């Protein structure tokens, strides 16, 4: 039981990171119909931006993080939208998928060619502290990860639901044309979604890199699991991506402990297949009208 | 006239393919055979993607299932190559049906994710189940096939065998695409709802296209296992699936010879551009992105695009 609770907690911490990436993925899909296969690399890049700040300019972690967010907003936010997604949208889903796959290959190998192929250690935000709560060993890192993710996701939820801009973004997600007729600057809202995705990915990088280590291919499994988490929870829902992320994180951790660590990475797929067989729109998803 | 030109082009291509190994080194012939193996797999993926409009990111998993089915049956049970081939094709076909069914119940892009996850699973099984597959140590000593007392031991003779398979696979695909059945695929890709309205069962057709594509990969997998003699998990991971997807898209999806051009480029470019080292994949990735932005029809779509551009320019001149 104690083991179980410990696994549950550390699973939740991993799941919160999946959720951050999955929510960003969902935002892009909702507002612009973009399926971003470079999502994992969008987490990998800020990790290296932070590393550049730490090692290259001798910054502390906090300013390095701010620097990483700034660069991410420009590159993965504005430049990605204007340079890649905007000219692609008219071509439909498949070319977009292929283009983001090409981007993912290019980004990974730019880092591999310029920095190195090795894994670089990365400082943790939280001090290495362990304490006991009712017989359960709790690490400060797990608690802190959960806390930071909760604050970031909470803030996003508040912006989306309680501010005019957020509601305009939701309107764009529901129906672009109607939103435009209502006088909403659709392109600006889509840009905001890309920027939100860049920030979420940078936060995920801050939280995940101490355990994953900064490596050019660290985004591979992270990106895939975020897709699955997004679909499991419901592709058209922020809450869905949150639930999906947590579910994948926890079940993976439990499966690694109780079934087999070798098949940990298959959990997301099994969940995915189960969910689309029973409830194809995802656990919290709403049925979408067919778009033709 | 047009038919005559096509036939002449085909004749030239066949002669060129037959003469190709003569000037090449041993490694060159091996690469040529490898390219054709990938081209067979890419033919199958082209049916799934180009003709039926489904994105598959797990083609290398079927390639791997084919390779290990062929390899294990030949090495452990001593079956002959010719018996393992239909087994591998049938197995991939059935697994393709089983995987495609849930994914195709829902939206389009779900197949992309289902196949992506499936590829991870297959890779994990190949890597972890050492008692069966040899894990990362691989499976050694996959034999070359023999026919009527002749064994295709040399790379040159095996190249001709693969070429024969490629021609057969191309003819079969040609027939599928031309048959009423293939026209249904086209109708499906162009407008699914209209296809449905003329009583084309969308789900059955897409599922079949996916399963046949998987069977093509299975056959290519057996040929691959015999070509390299030694198989291990690496060539069957997700990067390999992405490479196959790029073969189809770079050449031009839905164009009959797109996969061949794509297979040639994706297999041979790294050899030609060795000097770029790590930067090769950077250039390749960016090139794919730029190609998708400016020319999503792939390289074989370029001549058509050029013709249209010239006509448009001529019109402008005439107007001015």
Concise account of the structure shown:
Chain A contains 11 helices and 2 strands; from the N terminus they run H-H-H-H-E-E-H-H-H-H-H-H-H.
How would you explain this protein's 3D organization?
- The complex is a heterodimer of chains A (about 290) and B (about 325).
- With about 290 residues, chain A is mainly α.
- Chain A is built from eleven helices and two strands; from the N terminus they run H-H-H-H-E-E-H-H-H-H-H-H-H.
- In chain A, a hairpin with a 2-residue loop joins strand 1 and strand 2.
- In chain A, helix 2 (about 40-55) packs across helix 8, helix 6 crosses helix 8 and helix 9 (about 220-235) packs across helix 10 (about 240-260).
- The model of chain A has no long low-confidence stretch (mean pLDDT about 90).
- Chain B is mainly α.
- Chain B has a domain at about 25-235.
- Chain B has helices at about 1-20, 25-50, 60-75, 80-105, 110-130, 130-135, 155-180, 180-190, 190-195, 200-230, 240-250, 260-270, 280-295, 300-320; strands spanning about 145, 150.
- A two-stranded antiparallel ribbon of chain B has the order 1-2.
- In chain B, helix 2 (about 25-50) runs parallel beside helix 7 (about 155-180).
- Chain B starts with a helix and ends with a helix.
- The model of chain B has no long low-confidence stretch (mean pLDDT about 85).
- Chains A and B meet through helix 3, helix 4, helix 9 and helix 11 of A and helix 4, helix 5, helix 11 and helix 13 of B.
Characterize the biggest β-sheet of chain B: 2 strands, antiparallel
Distance between the termini of chain A: 51 Å
The poorly predicted ranges of chain B are none
Which two chains touch over the largest interface? Answer: A-B, 44 and 47 residues
Helical content band of chain B: over 70%
Structural class of chain A: mainly alpha
Q: How does the major sheet of chain A shape up?
A: 2 strands, antiparallel
Task: Please identify, by name, the CATH architecture of chain A.
Answer: Orthogonal Bundle
Strand content of chain B: under 5%
Strand order of the largest sheet of chain B: 1-2
Total domains of chain A, how many?
1
Distance separating the two termini of chain B: 35 Å
Average pLDDT over all residues of chain B: 87
């Amino acid at each position: 039981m104690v083991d179980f609770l410990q696994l549950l907690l550390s699973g939740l911490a991993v799941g919160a990171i999946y959720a951050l990436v999955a929510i960003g993925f969902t935002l892009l899909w909702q507002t612009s119909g973009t399926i971003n296969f470079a999502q994992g690399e969008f987490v990998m890049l800020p990790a290296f931006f932070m590393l550049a700040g730490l090692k290259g300019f001798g910054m502390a972690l906090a300013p390095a993080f701010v620097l990483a967010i700034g660069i991410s907003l420009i590159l993965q936010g504005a430049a990605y939208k204007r340079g890649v997604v905007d000219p692609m949208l008219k071509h439909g889903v498949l070319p977009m998928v292929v283009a983001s796959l090409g981007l993912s290959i290019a980004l990974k190998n730019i880092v591999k060619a310029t920095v190195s192929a090795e894994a670089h250690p990365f400082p943790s935000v939280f001090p290495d502290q362990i304490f006991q709560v009712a017989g359960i060993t709790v690490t400060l890192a797990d608690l802190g990860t959960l806390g930071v993710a909760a604050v970031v996701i909470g803030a996003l939820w508040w912006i989306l639901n309680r501010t005019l801009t957020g509601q305009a973004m939701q309107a764009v997600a529901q129906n672009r044309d109607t939103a435009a007729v209502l006088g909403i600057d659709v392109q600006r809202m889509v840009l905001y979604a890309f920027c939100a995705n860049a920030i979420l990915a940078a936060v995920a990088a801050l939280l995940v890199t101490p355990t994953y280590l900064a490596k050019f291919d660290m985004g591979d499994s992270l990106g895939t699991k975020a897709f699955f988490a997004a679909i499991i929870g419901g592709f058209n829902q922020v809450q869905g991506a949150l639930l999906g992320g947590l579910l994948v994180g926890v079940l993976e951790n439990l499966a690694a402990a109780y079934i087999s660590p070798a098949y940990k990475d298959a959990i997301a797929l099994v969940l995915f297949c189960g969910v689309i067989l029973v409830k194809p729109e995802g656990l919290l998803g709403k049925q979408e009208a067919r778009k033709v | 006239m047009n038919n005559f030109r096509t036939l002449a082009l085909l004749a030239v291509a066949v002669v060129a393919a037959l003469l190709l190994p003569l000037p090449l080194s041993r490694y060159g012939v091996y690469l040529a055979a490898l390219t054709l193996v990938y081209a067979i797999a890419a033919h199958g993926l082209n049916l799934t993607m180009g003709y039926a409009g489904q994105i598959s990111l797990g083609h290398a998993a079927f390639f791997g299932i084919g390779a290990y089915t062929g390899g294990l049956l030949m090495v452990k049970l001593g079956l002959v190559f010719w018996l393992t081939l239909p087994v591998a094709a049938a197995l991939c076909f059935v697994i393709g049906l089983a995987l495609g069914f849930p994914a195709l119940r829902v939206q389009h892009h779900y197949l992309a994710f289902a196949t992506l996850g499936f590829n991870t699973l297959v890779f994990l099984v190949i890597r972890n189940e050492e008692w069966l597959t040899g894990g990362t140590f691989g499976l050694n000593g996959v034999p070359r096939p023999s026919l009527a007392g002749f064994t295709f031991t040399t790379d040159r003779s095996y190249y001709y065998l693969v070429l024969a398979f490629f021609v057969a696979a191309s003819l079969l695909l040609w027939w599928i695409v031309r048959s009423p059945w293939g026209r249904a695929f086209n109708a499906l890709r162009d407008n699914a709802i209209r296809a449905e309205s003329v009583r084309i069962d969308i789900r059955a057709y897409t599922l079949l296209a996916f399963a046949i594509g998987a069977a093509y990969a299975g056959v290519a997998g057996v040929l691959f296992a015999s070509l390299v003699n030694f198989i291990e998990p690496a060539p069957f991971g997700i990067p390999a699936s992405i490479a196959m997807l790029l073969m189809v898209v770079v050449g031009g999806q839905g164009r009959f010879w797109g996969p061949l051009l794509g297979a040639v480029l994706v297999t041979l470019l790294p050899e030609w551009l060795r000097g770029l080292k790590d930067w090769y994949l950077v250039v390749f990735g960016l090139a794919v992105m730029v190609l998708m932005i400016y020319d999503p029809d792939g390289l074989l779509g370029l001549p058509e695009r050029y013709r249209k551009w010239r006509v448009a320019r001529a019109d402008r001149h005439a107007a001015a």
